[in-house]
Write a structure and sequence with these properties.
By secondary structure, this protein is mainly α. It has a single domain, classed as Farnesyl Diphosphate Synthase (Orthogonal Bundle), CATH 1.10.600. Helix content is about 70%, strand content about 0%. A two-stranded antiparallel sheet has the order 1-2. α2 packs across α5, α11 packs parallel to α18 and α14 packs across α17.
């Protein structure tokens, strides 16, 4: 299991919750990738250090808490299809992680979150202004890293991606507690807020390793579909896993008015009127309301239907990379998609119905 310089797990799940086999390190059996991931971790510490000690403390608060480092990992894997021998793939990984973590600081302000990655959130530990400044600082550093080491096109790509992320989050906010939107809206939301940065992570890694244009495009298509699967799986976990597994109350998305794919499918199903009545009650929803919506989503087959859509997306992803060389790396990409769905299946079997 890979750890950060602080000794906390940086891949393989929430801090404090043991990762169930197979772990990401088992799936990504590419030693050069893990060697570069250690360099990514070192560089994250370097570039998040400010002249002001307090700014350094708040900017590194989430970085030191650990995290999956999923996006920089994708950058390193994509680089295996080219020449990853110089520092640019590492810098690509650093840039996308800084964008990701910076956006989490802002998310926690919007959501009024108390915790993140097993630690008190910056906005709760200090205040909203501090959290916003820390997020801004990290995203500024991402631009600096890209401009210094990756070139103008990479700076443009990161800027476009962040705009897509903000658009996705804005659309999601507008749809909170809205029982009249459907799967098309859901896919637009998760495309912007999740898949866009996952696609850019792989794309930037491939560009940094001087991959041919057709490889860059293939990796971009693969990563877009993986990003959609990533969010579908994460949303499904909220409906099938226990509070202990999640590290937060199950059904939190419902409680926050964020109706994910299984709930939207349930709204359009035979028990749709019941779900609509439950979600139309006064807020905040009582736990009994959330539990009943979860039961309908699970027992009605809507979680399974969402996972079927995720599997279909993995098929599209596999087709995108079918012609690429490096069979060992291509096999890793295939396993990563399956890994995301397997986590849901594990949580579902480990959690009492």
């Amino acid at each position: 299991m890979t750890t950060s310089p602080t000794g906390k797990v940086i891949l393989g799940g929430t801090i404090g919750v043991p990762m169930q086999p197979p772990s990401v390190t088992d799936i990504v059996d590419l030693p050069r990738v893990w060697h570069r991931m250690l360099a990514v971790e070192e560089r994250l510490h370097e570039v998040s250090t400010a002249d002001d000690a307090f700014l350094t403390e708040i900017a590194q608060h989430l970085l030191k808490a650990g995290g999956k480092r999923f996006r920089p990992l994708l950058a390193q894997i994509a680089a295996e299809f080219g020449d990853p021998s110089d520092r640019r793939p590492v810098e690509a990984g650093v840039a996308v992680e800084l964008i990701h973590v910076g956006s989490l600081y802002h998310d926690d302000v919007i959501d009024e979150a108390d915790a993140r990655r097993g630690e008190v959130s910056v906005n709760a530990n200090w205040d909203n202004t501090v959290a916003i400044l820390a997020g801004d600082f990290l995203m500024a550093r991402a631009s600096e890293v890209a401009a210094t080491h990756l070139g103008q096109e990479s700076v443009r790509l990161l800027a476009v991606t962040y705009a897509e992320l903000v658009e996705g989050q804005t659309r999601e906010l507008r749809l909170d507690y809205d029982v009249d939107h459907g799967p098309d809206d859901y896919f637009r939301v998760i495309g912007g807020k999740t898949a866009s940065l996952i696609r850019t992570s792989a794309r930037l890694g491939a560009i940094a390793a001087d991959c041919p244009p057709e490889v860059v495009e293939a990796m971009s298509t693969w990563a877009w579909e993986l990003g959609i699967v990533f969010q579908i799986a994460d949303d499904a976990l909220d409906l099938v896993a226990s509070d202990e597994y999640l590290g937060k109350p199950a059904g939190s998305d419902i409680g926050e008015g964020k109706f994910t794919l299984p709930v939207l499918l349930a709204l359009d199903g035979p028990q749709g009127e019941r779900v609509r009545a439950l979600l139309g009650t006064d807020r905040p929803y009582p736990q009994a309301t959330i539990d009943e919506v979860i039961r309908i989503a699970r027992d009605g087959g809507y979680v399974a239907a969402a996972l079927d859509e995720a599997s279909r997306r993995l098929g599209v992803a596999a087709g995108a990379i079918d012609g690429l060389g490096e069979p060992a790396t291509r096999a890793v990409l295939t396993r990563m998609g399956s890994f995301l769905i397997d986590q849901v299946e594990f949580a579902r079997t480990a959690t009492p119905a």
